[in-house]
Amino acid sequence: ETGMFTYDPGYMSTGSCSSSITYIDGDAGILRYRGYDIAELAENCDFMEVAYLLLRGELPNAKERDEFHWTISHHTMVHEQLHKFVDGFRRDAHPMAIMCGVVGALSAFYHDSIDITDPYQRMVAQHRLVAKMPTIAAWAYKYSQGQPFAYPRNKLNYAENFLHMMFSTPCEEYEVNPVLAKAMDRILILHADHEQNASTSTVRLAGSSGANPFACIAAGIASLWGPAHGGANEAVLNMLNQIGTPDRVGEFVKRAKDKDDSFRLMGFGHRVYKNYDPRAKLMARTCHEVLAEVGAEDEPLLKIAMQLEKIALEDDYFIEKKLYPNVDFYSGIVFRAMGIPTTMFTCLFALARTVGWISQWKEMIEDPDQKIGRPRQLYQGATARPFISMEQRG
Ligand code: SDX
Fold it and tell me: Whose C-alpha lies nearest to ligand 1, atom 34?
């Protein structure tokens, strides 16, 4: 009767929307992009194919994929003036703060792609955002390291280019490790979209007012940063380090079940999945592949994570509340094995999710019935009452 949860075919005016991009069955643990199962896409595609699929609705043929990759790779440089913007941050700024700031500032540099009523400008904005996010994420890392930025290389694929911009220095070009590059590419696919999660809903809500796409994606980055959402991958690593050894896992599982204890098992639970997050399974496999490649099969944090998963999945509390590992549970261990610092983990999530955000934004903007978002509330405040003067307030 409050109208709070009635379904609205338009958009977000009551907190829901229609979409044809990503399908999740939380009870069955199913995730599909445009109807294709996530495991098949992760196994058989590269990230550019999946980005094309999310943006345009169909898997590209070889010619379409190559043209799309050429377009994206030739937009990876960022306006040189933006270096000055990054230089304004403290060296110890969190890389997500830099990403949030720089992406929002893109609207001050690319005036020819902010008129959302122009289909061509919308397309250019989409390509610019997908292309420039790896460059901006790598900038954030290089800046924190006090190292010069590395320029993108058009001959590299998306994941290879990112690793190059992260780890190349003027003294030594990063030598692409194909196993790590393939793992990174798969991880980007797994993080690309996920229906109407908090950050995607933020992007849609911001976009529903007609705000430019760069500002909308910056809003998505801000929302993703939270530890309950994209910040969980960084929080999982911090949690595993806090646990310290496999024999202390039981102590922390006990704490996670104590309502009076604020401790939560990071990387566990999900608003939608009440079964195993299909991405977590693929991430666990990638984790073992990467650790084997870098000779870190005995990584202590992996042993703690596996012990934690074993105990939690056998525990009545977690079984009853249907809490399973989610996409963030193993991702941090993989990133760390690749030499990526903890503070960069959520930047990688943002880098991948930009494709989903901008696909969802495009779908919303192109919906002729789209209206400005206006989530409803259930008012629980004071009823009408007479004004009281300062003297009467005691
Ligand atoms: C992502 O929405 C998306 O799709 C997000 C995402 C994406 O791709 O965009 O999948 C990415 O954000 C994954 C989630 C990453 N966050 C974490 O790993 C942080 C730890 N997880 C929790 O904070 C929690 O599980 C949430 C925030 C993810 C969801 O919490 P909800 O909405 O409360 O729902 P739930 O089903 O997970 O919780 C049910 C119960 C609750 O107890 P009651 O209120 O019913 O008594 O389980 C409890 C929760 O308190 N619970 C946990 C827990 N997670 C939930 N108890 C202990 N440890 C946990 N991790």
Answer: 271
